[in-house]
Amino acid sequence: MTLLQSWVESANSADTDFPLNNLPYGVFETNTLEPRCGVAIGDMILDMAAMEENGLIDLAEEPVFDVPYWNDVMELGPEGWAALRNRLTDLLAADAPDQAQVAPHLVPMAEARMHMPLVVTEFTDFYAGKHHATNIGTMFRGAENALPPNWLHIPIGYNGRASTVVVSGTPIVRPNGQTKAPDADMPSFGPSKRLDIELEMGAIVGTSSEMGHPISVAQADDMIFGYVLLNDWSARDIQPWEYQPLGPFQAKAFATSISPWIVTKAALEPFRTSTPEREKDLLPYLREPGPMLYDIELEVTMAPEGKAPTTIARTNYNQMYYSAAQQLTHHASSGCAMNAGDLLGSGTISGPEKDERGSLIELSWGCKETITLDSGDTRTFIEDGDTMTLKGAAKGDGFRIGFGDCVGTIKPAIKFP
Amino acid sequence: MTLLQSWVESANSADTDFPLNNLPYGVFETNTLEPRCGVAIGDMILDMAAMEENGLIDLAEEPVFDVPYWNDVMELGPEGWAALRNRLTDLLAADAPDQAQVAPHLVPMAEARMHMPLVVTEFTDFYAGKHHATNIGTMFRGAENALPPNWLHIPIGYNGRASTVVVSGTPIVRPNGQTKAPDADMPSFGPSKRLDIELEMGAIVGTSSEMGHPISVAQADDMIFGYVLLNDWSARDIQPWEYQPLGPFQAKAFATSISPWIVTKAALEPFRTSTPEREKDLLPYLREPGPMLYDIELEVTMAPEGKAPTTIARTNYNQMYYSAAQQLTHHASSGCAMNAGDLLGSGTISGPEKDERGSLIELSWGCKETITLDSGDTRTFIEDGDTMTLKGAAKGDGFRIGFGDCVGTIKPAIKFP
């Protein structure tokens, strides 16, 4: 597939994240427009509420775009999603007849402020990156016991906190929490000293499954609406003290950032790729009928306050051991009802090489090594004022499918009341 | 405090769960009424949507009762909650002047079907019963290592799944899942063979806290709207294989049942009691300014299909080591935003004695002992067709504050697609 041509000139560049091939979904406001659904095209946003109001898009009996979330569109299901994408492609293609009617509803991206693109009903975070799980396991349990015995059989996950999933650009307040040094008698309470990122992709569930009813991997893939970049902020000093026996809780609950744009499964279709060969056969319910990962290049940058960013890691979503479809199937396998708006974090994405690690704890190998930034500053974990940015794009022949950056700047912890 | 007299005669019995002292909140429908908010009084339900429509209750500018959830009332905050309770008490007291206007809006409970009383935004389950944690720990790790080292310092909890919290009476489908016998090479997938209950109380958060901002225990207590009975259904064979290192997931995700009535904090006020003496000092952020547990007698019954129930355990909510207010404070301590509609499970409530254990795995001591029912049937875990019922009431001088039973009957697992 090559770059599709649009009459929106800025969409025809090899460098834009948002060519006609992409058409990702977000929620934006401007000084004059209330928050509403929009579609990115080049350096513009198509105001979907206005398009609907003016009859240029007519997807459902009730309006679905004049709201600050894409959940109503999700509820239309895969046929509705395909109809919308076809209509948008027709309206924005180079030879589209309706340009004069559509053009007034394009808003410059530079004038827009982005909001959460969806209401996250529930958030689940997985642990499906084998290099990451091996790295973390080696640090905590030694190389022989790095991977837990269930890891090659189960896409391991835990329920996260939906109330603190925020859009890129939202400041992240350093969490407080209980920590205990191995040699201390008592724990203490205060700001985390080991604040970290986790570079992940988020899959957005677009249709619902019924309580009590498991789903196949093929059904799960059909249920996925799209993908975002996801930063699972983590307090590495809170987690070891709290996480036995019931898993991470406050070490993860304070914030999760996502990119402003939901890239649809349709846009990513040319980039499908397979999960790696299995070291142990998967149980039949988890076997994939086809390639369900995607080739998406990922990057992390770090910038001290007022200084230029340094790229500290590059990796690819194709490194995962389990796809989002497999994770969703496992999630529903007990009969757990899944809903439109559920967000599934992939787990930290690290590659096999040292500069492909998707978290600071891996990059600094548990504080043993220092990360030196281009500014000359050194880091093991994140300091107040630092800005962390995730970037991602699937790269085609002369075009890219981007997500928009996923950015967060750290603010000092708030003193306990 | 003694029994308050109402002109609704059935509310004046020492045996009713719903005297004027209680006034719990539920959602009901009948053959002629759509699901809506109702208040239990004796063997009747006061139709709050009708009361509001007829101007007998006027709580907010917009209607808040003609919906199938109490979340809108929660949003009014503690002042609104107090105003509502005062108004209801005035309207239903023995000497109330408005009886003739109110009486037409009473619906016999026997004609009503109960729905979920709230939209659960997120569900968190704790592990705050010391006897339970000690019993489980002894079975799995031996008596010396029964309590994890963090247990006396942290109200340990994990995020659960809100999509499968259901009202009493909803059938529970036996979950499928991965299990692995210790001597097996590979895991297998199929219906759980060790289905269990967990007897818990659920606290309902009624107001919201801001992301990044911790709250004190006093603030947390003010945020709690009310309490329900809660059965945290658990698959004991799925959990051991899946739960390391990130905690319980599918072993708990398939279902959680709650009682149909939310008993308000105001109704429980006379029954406040303190958490037990601390074995180790709590960190200051977790210390309670006053008694924040409640004296609520609890009971579990088990009935094979078509047979009479047997009481298999009796215990009391006052056995907990941490209160819901302490749990809520810890939950928000990292800066995790809490929302009206959040549900916090207390953790399994067991007493010190053998017949005070709130789960079958404790009652059967990990399958080593058989539970014999009055019908002559024996059980270690739950079989298809069995009905499990939680009962609870705070008992005053000649009156009781009940929750309505929390019932679930097990249906066979659904075959994987």
Automatic annotation (TrEMBL), chains A, B:
Does the keyword field hold Hydrolase?
yes
Q: What is this protein called?
A: fumarylacetoacetase
What Enzyme Commission number(s) does the record list for this chain?
Answer: 3.7.1.2
Which lineage ranks, top first, belong to the organism behind this chain?
Answer: Bacteria, Pseudomonadati, Pseudomonadota, Alphaproteobacteria, Rhodobacterales
- Domain named Fumarylacetoacetase-like C-terminal: residues: 123-407
Main enzyme class? hydrolase
Q: InterPro entries annotated for this entry? A: Fumarylacetoacetase (IPR005959), Fumarylacetoacetase-like_C (IPR011234), Fumarylacetoacetase_C_sf (IPR036663), Fumarylacetoacetase_N (IPR015377), Fumarylacetoacetase_N_sf (IPR036462)
Q: In which pathway does it act?
A: Amino-acid degradation; L-phenylalanine degradation; acetoacetate and fumarate from L-phenylalanine: step 6/6
- Record NCBIfam families: fum_ac_acetase
Ranges for domain Fumarylacetoacetase N-terminal come to: 21-117
Keywords attached to this entry: Calcium, Hydrolase, Magnesium, Metal-binding, Phenylalanine catabolism, Tyrosine catabolism
Cofactor(s) it depends on: Ca(2+); Mg(2+)
Matching entries from SUPFAM superfamilies are given as: FAH, Fumarylacetoacetate hydrolase, FAH, N-terminal domain
Recorded GO MF terms: fumarylacetoacetase activity
Which Gene3D superfamilies does the UniProt entry name for this protein? Fumarylacetoacetase, N-terminal domain (2.30.30.230), Fumarylacetoacetase-like, C-terminal domain (3.90.850.10)
Q: Taxonomically, which superkingdom?
A: Bacteria
